[in-house]
Request: fold
Amino acid sequence: MKTDDNTRTMEIPIEEFGKTAKKIEEEIRKVIVGQAEIIRGVIIALIAEGHVLLEGVPGLGKTMLIRTLSEVLDLEFSRIQFTPDLMPADIIGTNILSEDGAGNKALTYQQGPIFANLVLADEINRATPKTQSSLLEAMQERSVTVGTKTRKLPSPFFVMATQNPLEMEGTYPLPEAQLDRFFFKLLVPYPEDLELLEIMNRTTISTVPKVSKVASGEMILNMSALAKEVLVASHVAEYGIKVMLATHPDKEFAPKSVKQFARYGSSPRGAQALFLAAKIRALLDGRYNVAFEDFREVAMPALRHRILLNYEAVMEGVTSDALVKDILDVIQPG
Amino acid sequence: MQALKAHQDSHDKHINDSVGSAIILQKLAQARLHIRLNRCWHNFLFSLLAALSMTLLIEFMFRILIFDNRRIFEALVFTVIPILAVSWPFFQRIDDFKCATTVDLLFKTKERLSTAIELRSQGLRTRFSPEVISDAAKIASTINPAEGFSYRPPKQVVVAIISLVLANGLLFYLPNPSEIVLMERKALAKQLEIEKKVLEKKKADISKNTGLSKKDKEELLKKIDDLIKELSKKNLTREEAVAKISQLKQELEKEKPAWGKSSDEMLQRLARRMSGMPGIKELSSALQNRDFKLAAKEAKKLSNLKNLSESEKKALSAELNRMSESASQTDPQLAKALSKLSHALGGRQSGERDLEQASNQLAQALEQAGQSASFEQMISSLSDQLSQSRLSMANAGQQSSQMASSSGRNSSSNQSGNNLGNQGRNNGQSGSNAGNNSGNGSGAGKGAIGARPNSNQGISSGSNDFGNIKLDRERRKGKYESIYAPELISANKRDEKLTGQKLQGEETVENISLPPSMKEALIPYTQVYYHYYDTAVEAINRGEIPPGMEEIIKNYFDSLRPNK
Reply:
């Protein structure tokens, strides 16, 4: 399904929200074993119309998760395999010289794979920064500009990127500006023993689990609109803001570790992600209001990639996850 | 129809909102009471913690900075802080939102109530408004504030309170050098007040004393006034006070006559000598009672001595002559008057006129000698008083401080004992030298001097020697061992008839004087003492005592002096 930018959202019943989200989750679980938090994170980002960056060593099912999601949703899916020789035009498209039947030659725009509802940017950090940056406009403005013409991307538009850990060979770290455009950064953990056994059981037999499409793009947009109606009480909102601001080393209430190891904290886009994710989580939990725990639950994926560490942290091996954990330990509700 | 249904839906929602809000508000009202009670408990514990910490701090500070009234501070800390802390929650306004946030946190209702309250109070209307209220109401109806708000004191606070109680207790029983200093100061201040009162009393005594000349009175009163002023100065140390008292005492000592040259003693000697003489018994009695004005009157009546027999006149003249010799060193005028009277009585050519003149001269001399004696007596009394004051000042606070260092706070009661002792002494002083005042305070010990029998006498019970104390007690009761007087053996001979069987032959009668019984050979100590005392004085007057030894002899006789 590809819709234009004028797609109108309709109010859906509140019960529908939970049911749809549950269906999506159940369908994904047919293929993906375990990774409950990752699946939940992806669904939250999806409802928030946010982009997701999945990080993990090869073979953990990152690509499989996104591909399954595309199968569950009635959306147009495209996959871009990022390689070092991938060029921006390979992603956003380019003007090519074409000749019509009459022999007239003209430059016509050839769309790139970015023109889809759900774009899988596989191993995004294997491409050069130049190519990586080609996604910047698409991710934020949901449009691409080629030459002098700007073209809108279909709605909904999601970029689901995967990347290998940065320390691996042949990788280029994503620029901060690009990282900030990701709603969530999810770290895919290694499966547990039992999960691994289940994976073996499922993947080493001849039958492949089939998933069905349970939600349309319109439904996702409606769900997104509905989630924005969730109430956040003032003291809860203050807590969310405080958590976000605590990522800034110059804030007096920031934890000691943040002051020591963080260079820059989260942007306001981080706070937006935090609030929206908290609202969706509340709805998924069957509530109509945001609780402190919603902020605490979504803080890690929403903020971890928005904290820029300093050289000392790199040398000490301190991760942004540790800083977010410290923040949550120090900034307590109430 | 659709409009009607929409209206019905709206009405239902409104009712639901109202009912939901009512449920929420009712639970919040219950919760508010429990929040207040919990805060009371919480505040009480923390105020206790604060009070204990402050007390500890005050105690520590008191060991560095000496300040008075710390007990008041501590009492205030232990009363005002907890009372304020416990009552404070009932004066605090706990609005619905605050109450709801507390309930949310306590009952883990995921901020449902606070969101509902905010929605209700701020009129936030979203699509989820009815659901938020309804959801919150459902949760609220499951809550029992009485269970959720049971207060459990934080372990750290309990541990801290126990630790502080132990620390305070330890500090309470440890000796406190600052407290010792403070107690010394207090004791010193109290002692100074007592001494000032005693001096004021002394001033009154001097003012009332009719035997003193005006000049002597003024001089003594000025000295006492000066001393009172010195003792009233602020920040006076014990050493300074003792020094001031000592200074005045030294000045008074200079004015005291040399031993053996005291008019008072001399007049008493004369009185004792006169007591056995005919015609002058009244004079002797007046002198013994130190009523020198009466003595002067009686002296004027000595013109009646002309009626005595010649032998009596001669004997009296001879005695008066000896008296004159005895008094010559101390009071030449009196000696001259006595000599003149002696001549008037014993002289062959003396007439009544001479006797009258001599009597008048003696009266005049006695009056002057009486004034001197009164002055000496007053000087002596004041000097003794100052000795006593000096001793009291020197001891002021020492006993209490010793007790404070040995038993911490318990010293305060002992201090009061010491003060009682001093008070007792004060009472003893104000008893006009009554002598038998036993003003021993309950804190009597080294420092308690109220047991002094006579301020003139200067005998202090501040001796550690048990034997001395016993002796002193005996003397106070007037019990003295009688003295064996061998000369009585010849004076009180007794005849004893020996009986036997009469046989044949010549009868021989022989009178044998047996020595008196032991009982008869004993003289009361009081009689003996003054005999030896007078003899010693006369020996000094005759210059038989080597220079510099007079004081030793005086001290010796003073130590033997019986209670008057």
About this structure: The two ends of chain B are 129 Å apart (CA to CA).
